Amino acid sequence: MADGSANLDKASEDQICIGVLALQGAFREHIAHFRKLPGVTATEVKKKEDLKDLDGLVIPGGESTTMALIAERWGLIPELRSWAKGGRPIWGTCAGLIFLADRASGQKEGGQALLGGLDCKVQRNFFGAQINSFESQLPVPKQLQPFEHGPAKYRAMFIRAPAIMEAGPSVEILSEYRLSAEEQAVTEGRECVAVAVRSKQLLATSFHPELTEELRWHETFVDMVRRHQQGDKPGVNGRSPSSASLNSMSSQRSQSDGLRPADMPVYGTRDRL
């Protein structure tokens, strides 16, 4: 009996709760993915009281300006900023990446409220409008290798997606998108942009893993949450590459890595540039 009771206590301790900001955007898809993972519950966050007792928080994709306006109207911005600065795990996807960034360009007139905490500069709608949305196959970063029960590349869906143009030394770059020759021509020769980063307890992706069957990014965030509970500090092997080093890193890779396959559009066959 004593052993059985101990096992129940251990199972209860291992259970974690992930909250997903549910103001607008793809929050239901995130919740569905998390609920596929053992020992994880997921719930909607619509008011500041919903943040209580969460182990991790996801800020999903959507229309970033609309989400910011709703969050301000409902008095959530101070609470979300507290989460961002309190050292607790947060994952931002697409619009959520913009929320977490310390700096952003391409914003609408008057800008929008940023939570901050992620030492990077993002460019809003870097990949174009809704009709320019696309998919790509990107190499699985080594940080996802513990959860490698799938192919060596993952499906990345970009929908009016931002890109990370600059990253500070505390930011670890997990995935990059290699620009085509046409894209390089309008970005002053830049060869690649970062599309997934991690810094301490913050994870951010330009793309939407929740809109695919890919679970490894959700598993990675759950692992971050569990490590945070155990008091482990996220490891960064050496100095993280800044935006200045992105081109040199990319030049060492195959020219085909990260390029969008012509037969994988989300909206029609129109080229982005």
UniProtKB/TrEMBL annotation:
SUPFAM superfamilies recorded: Class I glutamine amidotransferase-like
Question: Is Acetylation found in the keyword set?
Answer: no
Gene Ontology CC terms, in alphabetical order? cytosol; glutaminase complex
Is Lyase found in the keyword set? yes
Q: What is its EC number?
A: 3.5.1.2
**What keywords are annotated for this sequence in UniProt?**
Glutamine amidotransferase, Hydrolase, Lyase, Pyridoxal phosphate
**Can you state which reaction this protein catalyses?**
L-glutamine + H2O = L-glutamate + NH4(+)
Question: Where is the stretch described as Disordered?
Answer: 229-273
Q: Name one Pfam family in it.
A: SNO
The Gene Ontology terms for molecular function here are: glutaminase activity; lyase activity
Q: Where is the composition biased (Low complexity)?
A: 240-256
What the entry lists under InterPro entries is as follows: Class_I_gatase-like, PdxT/SNO, PdxT/SNO_CS
- Give one GO biological process term: pyridoxal phosphate biosynthetic process
Looking at the record's lineage, which domain of life comes first?
Answer: Eukaryota
Q: Which Gene3D superfamilies match?
A: 3.40.50.880
Write out the similarity annotation.
Belongs to the glutaminase PdxT/SNO family.
Question: Can you say what this protein is called?
Answer: glutaminase
